[in-house]
Amino acid sequence: xxxxxxxxxxxxxxxxxxxxxxxxxxxxxxxxxxxxxxxxxxxxxxxxxxxxxxxxxxxxxxxxxxxxxxxxxxxxxxxxxxxxxxxxxxxxxxxxxxxxxxxxxxxxxxxxxxxxxxxxxxxxxxxxxxxxxxxxxxxxxxxxxxxxxxxxxxxxxxxxxxxxxxxxxxxxxxxxxxxxxxxxxxxxxxxxxxxxxxxxxxxxxxxxxxxxxxxxxxxxxxxxxxxxxxxxxxxxxxxxxxxxxxxxxxxxxxxxxxxxxxxxxxxxxxxxxxxxxxxxxxxxxxxxxxxxxxxxxxxxxxxxxxxxxxxxxxxxxxxxxxxxxxxxxxxxxxxxxxxxxxxxxxxxxxxxxxxxxxxxxxxxxxxxx
Length: 369
Known about the structure:
Elements: E1 3-9, H1 15-29, E2 34-40, E3 46-48, H2 54-62, E4 69-74, E5 77-80, E6 88-89, E7 92-95, H3 100-103, H4 106-113, H5 123-130, H6 132-141, E8 149-153, H7 154-157, H8 161-169, E9 173-177, E10 187-189, H9 192-205, E11 208-213, E12 219-228, E13 231-234, E14 238-240, H10 249-254, E15 261-262, H11 269-285, E16 292-298, E17 304-310, H12 325-339
Parallel strand pairs: 1-2, 1-7
Antiparallel strand pairs: 2-3, 3-4, 4-5, 5-6, 8-11, 9-10, 9-11, 12-13, 12-14, 12-16, 14-15, 16-17
């Protein structure tokens, strides 16, 4: 039986949502694999959890995680921190961390460093799409339609330049902390005073913010993608409805049973195809693996705009491909099998420069005299 490590938690405002996703995926995978649920503590370190669900996690947390084992990663596996030689090989890892360094590429890089195969996106797309500012810059260069926007750091907010930039953009605008998700810290501003308050909130949570033109009367559309046997496969498009100008955290998670949505969304065939083509292009150009969910906006005039992409979406967006647990289990199995596909090793060149007998003191260059 293959051993799968499911990582969740981390230092993020979305840590609790990550726990739900991690427990959900771990329980689905247990029927077919040996599962190691690994909790990334906000203060640092990794804990190997006992089998169970969200209630078991809550009890373990209340008990100070005394029933859990602190672990470290080793080459190709994992070991108890106090017994590093007792290594357990890991056949594949699944990243269920939302936000922060877990979703932003750090975990992906660490797994690659320890040569642990992963069923989730690697470091580069993870880092790019966690940061809304960077992703908009890159996608604009790829001719992917995005809304007009500008970025602002906390230091720049102390000046006055943002006022003129916002006026040029035109109100209303939407303010988003650059590296946060799940609608945390997002506000719509109708004028300068509201924008100032929205930016103050954003900078309580993040060091940078994206200020973007707000589309009045927009439609919010979601679509997911994954790769299987060389093919990029897409979910139906979902439309999500909100009673607020933006889809709130509460609407996404706290009132899941009251979530108003239409799946598949009622869209003209041309619009649906354009959204599918855009996500396929993004997924292919960034050489992604694993499952991702992209959010698009549709204007009243029928124009499509890329909004954002999650490399670790809530419950890994399995619901977009089918509502049953059987379908979700099968999808996670496909992701794991894809993650375990061997990749050809590339040669690492040895320059031989360290064998040179004499070096100068400037730049480490060899002296020619």
